[in-house]
User: Which sequence fits this backbone?
C-alpha cells in the first residue's frame, strides 16, 4: 500500500519534471536561435576585408628609378591594407582603411576614414578622408590583385600619388543611359603634404559602362601653395625670383580613359594632362595595355610615356653665376648644392629642373597567373628610356651627371604575389 501511494505521488512529480525539462530545452533552442540571428546581423553590420602585395624588384642601374636600383629590393612594391566597414543600417555606414607600405618601413597610415550614406537608389554621399577620383584606377592604387601589372605605370599614376587621398565630401549619382550604366561623381576637399598645401580641390568624373567596356572622363582643379619641404622651398623660391609671386597657384588636371574586357581580351588605356601656374611642372602622360587570357594566364604588354610640357618656364634670364644673396635671398644649405658656401642661381635652376623636368617612355612586358581564388603571381620586365632626370633620383642623377655617366635608360624586373582576403 505504501509503494502504491509512493507511485501515485511520484507520477505527477515526474510529469512536472518532464514538462519543466521540455520547457527548458525549448527556451534554450529559442535563445540559441536569437543568438545566431544576432551573430548573423552583426556579421552583416561589420565586415573586415584586406589585401596585400609581396614584391621583389631590381634594375640594372645604380641610380634608382621610381625607387628601384641595382640592389635587390623587397620593400618598394610590398604593402598590406585592412578595410573595416560598419553598417549602422541599410543606408549608413562608416568605412576605414589602414595601409602599411614597405617603401615607408611598413608604418601604418589611415588612408580612408569616412561616413557613407545611400540617399536613394541613385544618390550616395561620403564625408571624411576619401580617395580623389582623378584616375580610372584611383580606387585600386594599392590593390595589386585588381590590376594586371606587377607595378603600376608610374609615369602616369605617380604624378598625383601624394594627393591620392583628400579630406572632403563626395556626391555620386549612379543610373542608366539607355542600355548602359552611367556614374557621375563629384568631390570637393583639401590635402596637405610637406611640399604642398592643396586647397579647394574639386573633381568631377563621368563613367559610361556596359558588361564588356567602360569609358571615363575626369577633370580636377585646385589652389596650390608650397610647403616647408625641400621641393616646396625650391619651387616657392623660384616662383618669387621668376616673378610668379609667392601666393597660391591655380592647377588643373584632366584624364580620359577606357577599358575593354569581354572575357579573353584585355585592352585598357589612359591619357592625362596637368597644368599649374608658375614653375611647377605641367605634364602629359599616357599608357595603353593589351593582354589575352589563356585560362589562368594573362600575358600583357604596356606602352607608356611621361613628358613635362613647360621646360622653357624653368629657364631664366638671370645669369646662372649670380649669387642669390644679391637678389635678397639669405644663404641656406638647401640651395648650396655644390657646398661652395654661396647660393648661386645656377644651383637653384639645376635643382628645379632636376625635380621638375621629365621625358620618359616605358615598354613593359608581363604575365599574370591566377594561382587560386584571391592569389595572383605576376612577373614584369620594364624597359625605360629617358632624356631627362624624370623619375630617377635627382641627387643620384646629378652626381652621375657630374661624373659624366648620367643614365638615360634602365631595365627593371619585378615579381609580386598579390592577394585579397
Assistant:
Amino acid at each position: 500500500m505504501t509503494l502504491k501511494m509512493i507511485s501515485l505521488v511520484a507520477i505527477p512529480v515526474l510529469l512536472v519534471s518532464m514538462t519543466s525539462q521540455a520547457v527548458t530545452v525549448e527556451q534554450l533552442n529559442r535563445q540559441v536561435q536569437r543568438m545566431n540571428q544576432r551573430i548573423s546581423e552583426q556579421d552583416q553590420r561589420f565586415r573586415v576585408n584586406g589585401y596585400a602585395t609581396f614584391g621583389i624588384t631590381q634594375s640594372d642601374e645604380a641610380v634608382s628609378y621610381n625607387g628601384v636600383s641595382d640592389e635587390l629590393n623587397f620593400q618598394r612594391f610590398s604593402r598590406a591594407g585592412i578595410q573595416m566597414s560598419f553598417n549602422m543600417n541599410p543606408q549608413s555606414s562608416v568605412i576605414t582603411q589602414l595601409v602599411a607600405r614597405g617603401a615607408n618601413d611598413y608604418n601604418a597610415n589611415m588612408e580612408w576614414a569616412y561616413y557613407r550614406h545611400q540617399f536613394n537608389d541613385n544618390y550616395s554621399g561620403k564625408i571624411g578622408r576619401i580617395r580623389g577620383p582623378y584616375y580610372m584606377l584611383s580606387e585600386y592604387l594599392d590593390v595589386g590583385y585588381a590590376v594586371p601589372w606587377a607595378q603600376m605605370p608610374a609615369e602616369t599614376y605617380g604624378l598625383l600619388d601624394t594627393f591620392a587621398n583628400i579630406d572632403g565630401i563626395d556626391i555620386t549619382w549612379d543610373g542608366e543611359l539607355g542600355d548602359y550604366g552611367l556614374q557621375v561623381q563629384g568631390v570637393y576637399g583639401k590635402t596637405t603634404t610637406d611640399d604642398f598645401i592643396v586647397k579647394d580641390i574639386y573633381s568631377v568624373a563621368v563613367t559610361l559602362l556596359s558588361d564588356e567596356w567602360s569609358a571615363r572622363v575626369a577633370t580636377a582643379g585646385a589652389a596650390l601653395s608650397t610647403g616647408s619641404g625641400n621641393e616646396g622651398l625650391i619651387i616657392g623660391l623660384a616662383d618669387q625670383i621668376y616673378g610668379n609671386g609667392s601666393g597660391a597657384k591655380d592647377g588643373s588636371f584632366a584624364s580620359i580613359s577606357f577599358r575593354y574586357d569581354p572575357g579573353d581580351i584585355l585592352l585598357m588605356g589612359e591619357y592625362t594632362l596637368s597644368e599649374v601656374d608658375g614653375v611647377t611642372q605641367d605634364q602629359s602622360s599616357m599608357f595603353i595595355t593589351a593582354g589575352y587570357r589563356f585560362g589562368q594566364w594573362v600575358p600583357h604588354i604596356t606602352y607608356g610615356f611621361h613628358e613635362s610640357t613647360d621646360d622653357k618656364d624653368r629657364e631664366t634670364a638671370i645669369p646662372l653665376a649670380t649669387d642669390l644673396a644679391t637678389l635678397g635671398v639669405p644663404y641656406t644649405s638647401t640651395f648650396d648644392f655644390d657646398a661652395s658656401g654661396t647660393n648661386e642661381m645656377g644651383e637653384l635652376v639645376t635643382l628645379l629642373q632636376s625635380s621638375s623636368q621629365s621625358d620618359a617612355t616605358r615598354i613593359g612586358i608581363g604575365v599574370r597567373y591566377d594561382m587560386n581564388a584571391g592569389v595572383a603571381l605576376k612577373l614584369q620586365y620594364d624597359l625605360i628610356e629617358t632624356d631627362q632626370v624624370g623619375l630617377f633620383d635627382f641627387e643620384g642623377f646629378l652626381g652621375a651627371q657630374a661624373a659624366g655617366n648620367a643614365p638615360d635608360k634602365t631595365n627593371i624586373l619585378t615579381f609580386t604575389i598579390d592577394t585579397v582576403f
